[in-house]
């Protein structure tokens, strides 16, 4: 039986890894194709819009985490009301925030609106992904992640490759992001399973969403600060460097996806294994960036950016540190910690202040500031997790401790 569970877990990991690779590949292809098809100003605008929509879209990840943790603890239960509220609040926030972003960050209006529409579709998808993750149905979850990635990025990639320009590519991307939602709904359905557990509360979604938002804000703060403080050509170059950061950050994402339901059941061994795997992945990626930095920049943005290869280890190290940090933050959310996002918000605010007052307004200045911010946030969060782990262990609720890979 133990061997069967191990084989099942391996298959689940491979399936989710494949879906994650596809999602990350499509996400990286967007700026890569954009670097070859768009002007430096449009490339910087695209990267900024992607960063902004990723930050707003963390409501989707927060909803997914909240639903997954809730189902791992309580079994199938009603989440429709909290999910609908999350989508409505996100849409309202976008309506209020996007006009300000257009003015402050000098973004094209129609492209910004289309990016907002795509974001609403992505947020709605979080409900169904969370249901599959919380039930540990990693096979359907892998398909769902792949489908969402195709909708979120596939249309943009096709539009850019076809020479439709920034606005045309984002229009196609908004359409595909909305059209994949019925597919996710069908994947998550489990006929004959009654939703008789206690309903998901809005507070749980808010806590998970706040933590996820903080994670994305602090990890994208350098790109936004580069857009604000650097000339257009330098901010475009910095956008290419952040491709390496996001690669090191999201490459081990599968570990957190598989671990989250068990973290919700207070499995400390799972936390130790997850941290070790993510840290090892980060070491490998940073070493690769140190050896082949010029090649990495050339692949990410083209030959014109190869001379920035000496900074590749800094970008990769920032992503690697954030990868470990995000495992700890997810563990805090799964454990019901009250303020899991506090160290991240404090670090992001400190980074913005230091960038304004002290950091050199250059590519390496912002990059090293981002790395320092990641290290500070990791140290604070590690201390908080250590204090929590010294407390007595609460027995997890029974009923969802077995792994399913249907």
UniProtKB/TrEMBL annotation:
Signal peptide coordinates: none
Keyword annotations of the record: Membrane, Transmembrane, Transmembrane helix
Membrane-crossing residue ranges in chain numbering: 12-33, 45-70, 82-103, 109-129, 141-162, 168-188, 200-218, 238-261, 273-299, 311-329, 341-359, 365-387
Keyword set includes Membrane: yes
UniProt-recorded name of the protein: Polysaccharide biosynthesis protein
Lineage: Bacteria, Bacillati, Actinomycetota, Actinomycetes, Micromonosporales
